[in-house]
Amino acid sequence: MCGRYTLHSKPGVLSKHFGTVASPEFKPRYNIAPSSLCPVVRLKNDAKEIIICHWGLIPHWAKDDAKIKPINAKAETLSDRPYFRQAYKNRRCLVPANGFYEWQGKRGSKTPFYIHPVRSEFFAFAGLWESWQGPDNTIESFTIITTSANKTMSAIHPRMPVIISSQDYDSWLEKGADGLLKPCGEDKIAAYPVSARANNPANDSAELIQMA
DNA sequence: CCAGACGTTGTT
DNA sequence: GTCTGG
DNA sequence: CCAGACGTTGTT
DNA sequence: GTCTGG
């Protein structure tokens, strides 16, 4: 699955890669955990924009501050789940990342691996977004879509995020083609073990992605 | 009908 | 908003 | 995702 | 064991 990732490219590089007018400022992150504020790419009036959203989806119909805030949504059941169906139909996004973490082992002795793109600076995870209107505030949030592992990933973990290729960015945002919701090619990603310092989300520095 | 839930993951 | 359980 | 907390009472 | 916080 996908429960921790990195994004350390400069905002200008991000907006250039994703074809947006500009990007909000954000600090380089090497250990983004759920509930963090993160940049995502979405459509606004046929143009792409980058906005900062909470990781953990809060549906627009939630009454109070929702108890369940899914950080992932299964690609296989997106159309079935009332929780995701509307967002899948109307509110898709791309989640920029430079890489993500996945763990092996039991609680107390987890070994993290870092997975990164082979020929690109960025991953673009397929995501969904929502805007929740409270009495005093609005919360924009997102979730990352997961699928089964490709051959590279399956050595580590049975699932992985859906990764959209750059030539499919517009197609995903505009139409959300089902055909894009599958594991990426095994040669698009590579993985290596890193220090267990990555386990604690309080640690957030470039050394976390050094090979262990 | 109304009330209450709505998720994914890993682990045994 | 939409489905499930009672 | 992992790490860390998980409670009530009375008193200042 | 299960929930919350980061």
Describe the fold and architecture.
The structure is a single chain. By secondary structure, the protein is mainly beta. It has one domain (5-97, 121-183): hypothetical protein yedk fold (Alpha-Beta Complex). The chain is 13% helix and 36% strand. It has four helices and twelve strands. The chain has helices spanning 11-18, 82-90, 151-154, 169-174; strands spanning 5-7, 29-32, 37-44, 47-55, 72-74, 92-97, 99-104, 111-117, 123-133, 138-148, 159-161, 189-193. Strands 3, 4, 5, 6, 9, 10 and 11 form a seven-stranded mixed sheet that branches. A five-stranded antiparallel sheet has the order 2-1-7-8-12, with no helix packed on it. Strand 7 (99-104) and strand 8 form a beta hairpin. The longest helix has 9 residues, at 82-90. It is globular, with a radius of gyration of 16 Å. The mean pLDDT is 96. The structure holds four DNA strands.
